[in-house]
Structures are given as C-alpha cells and as structure tokens.
Design goal:
Structural class: mainly alpha
Length: about 250
C-alpha cells in the first residue's frame, strides 16, 4: 500500500529491505558453504573471531529460520570439514575451529539460548530500520530526497550485520563483567569464611589452653599467697625483736 504522494510506506519499505537482506544472507551462506576445510578454519579463526563467533547462526552459516533437521545437517557437514582428523597438517587450529562449531550447535539446541540469539538478531534489524526511518524523517524535514545508503540491500545487510555483531559483543562484555563480579564476590565470601574458621580455631585453642593450665595457675596463686603470708610473718617477727644493746668497753 502506497503512502500519500504515491511513495511507498516506510513499513512496506522496511519489510522489503529485510526480505532483500535475508535473500542476500542466503546467497552468501550458499557461497560460503562450499569453502574448503582450510578456508572454513580461516573463517572461524579470523581476527576478531571471539566476537564474530558469538552469533551461532554466523558460525554455522545457517538461516535463523532453519529447521532442526537443517541445523543438524549443517553441523555435521561443517564439523567434518574442520575436524582435526581431517586437518592433520594443522590440528591445533582445526581443533579450535571445531570447538567453535560445536559450541554454536549446542547453543542452538537449547531453546532459551536460541531465543536469545534470535532476539539479538531481530533487535539489530529493528535498530537499523529505526535509524533509516529517522534519517528519512530528517531528510523530509530538510526538503531533500528521501534517499539513504541503506536503501541499497547490500548496505542494509551490512548495517544489520554490524549492529548485530555490536549487540552480541555488548552482551558478551556484560556477561564477562558479571562473571568477574560474581567470582570476586565468591572469592571474598570464601576469604571471610576461612578467616572466620581460623578465628574460631584460635578461640577453641585458647579456651583449651586456658582449661588445661587452670590448675597450674591456681597452684601458682596459692604458692604466691603462701609466700606472701610467710614473708609478712617474718617481717612482723623482726619488727618485734628488741634492739641489740652495744656493750661499752672500759679502759
């Protein structure tokens, strides 16, 4: 349905752009799906792979709407390509690539994880659509042609891809921050637990020593009192003695 003035509505245009985007993605997937083992390993371990590989659909080169059977077939085909046994000339890199494929597959087997990944992809697409809408709104306000670079399906695809990768990266950074915080909290709690246990141990040892040395302290106190009493009596006796008389010598 066209909008006033004979121009297509922004809703229809965004749907058309997204369908073009999906079509372009499928073409790229079809092209890349025939990469050699070495090319697939290079793709999965390229610079920035730790963030590129956060998108499981990107790792497996499969459409987000793919069925479970299609997902399983794609995993088997790709895992065989990058398996270390098939790449004995470069087993270490092949192992890392295989682990990336395996991780992506297992993630998509989990309904909750798969839904989160799909939510990120849809959020990326919605963000770009909103950005395009705002650009056109500003162009209309300025009295200019409503042409933006994202009208080109390839540019739209790239914009969605970049935004999706950015969202995945931001989520991963936040996850790592939470993980680091949780680890710090667990470490602090453990240190407090150890400190409390050591304190309790010291108190038990002190109490034990106190009990074991009680009789000795009592005996020492009694001995001290007895000595003090004898000393006092001796002092009193010496005080009562008459002074010695010095005999005078006669010439």
């Amino acid at each position: 349905m066209a909008a006033a003035g004979g121009e297509p509505s922004s809703h229809n245009m965004s749907d058309e752009l997204f369908q073009n985007f999906i079509s372009e993605v499928k073409q790229i997937e079809k092209r890349d799906s025939v990469l050699t083992s070495k090319q697939q390993i290079d793709r999965l371990l390229r610079p920035g792979a730790s963030y590129f590989n956060l998108n499981p659909f990107e790792v497996l080169q499969i459409d987000p709407d793919a069925t479970d059977d299609e997902l399983k077939k794609r995993f088997r085909a790709l895992s065989i390509l990058v398996h270390p046994d098939k790449n004995q000339d470069d087993p270490e890199r092949a192992q890392k690539a295989f682990e990336a494929v395996d991780k992506a597959y297992k993630l998509l087997l989990d309904p909750d994880q798969k839904k989160r990944a799909l939510d990120v992809i849809h959020a990326g697409k919605e963000y770009v659509e909103h950005m395009v809408k705002e650009k056109k709104k500003q162009l209309k306000k300025d009295g200019k042609l409503l042409d933006v670079e994202e009208d080109d399906p390839e540019m739209f695809r790239q914009a969605v891809y970049k935004q999706t990768m950015k969202l995945f990266a931001e989520l991963e950074i936040k996850r790592k921050e939470r993980e680091a915080k949780d680890m710090h909290e667990r470490k602090r709690a453990r240190e407090e637990e150890i400190e409390a246990a050591e304190k309790a141990k010291r108190e038990r040892e002190w109490q034990k020593n106190f009990e074991e040395t009680r009789d000795g302290r009592v005996d020492s106190w009694r001995t001290f009192q007895a000595k003090g009493k004898k000393s006092k009596e001796k002092k009193n006796r010496s005080f009562l003695k008459p002074p010695k008389v010095k005999m005078e010598q006669r010439e």
